[in-house]
Amino acid sequence: QVQLVESGGGSVQAGGSLRLSCVVSGFTGTSVCMGWFRQAPGKEREEVAKISGGAGQLSYSDSVKGRFTISRDNAKNTVYLQMNSLKPEDTAMYYCAAALMYPYLCPEIATAFNRWGQGTQVTVSS
Length: 126
Description:
mainly beta, seven-stranded mixed β-sheet, four-stranded antiparallel β-sheet, about 0% helix, globular
């Protein structure tokens, strides 16, 4: 059964760091595009970062560029999101997602991600 499980969220002070993990089972997550998304109360879901399966492409939203890093450990079938210099506006529920029909390049639209985790909460205080 396909499953994505996030962990690593928590509460931190502004300027702090967290590393989120997404453990994939039921398929090889490293062979498809994987992404991190977030959604804060009252706001639309936002794409944060994504990493492609075969092309080795990384992309980030402008709001996190230079502060967040997406990576993967192929042996552990795990995708990570390293978050540094956290700001209160980073507070959100963070979701891991997979675009199963994109084994090489990442899709441009969020609707192409068809497997989602349950999310992990990140709270950044001033």
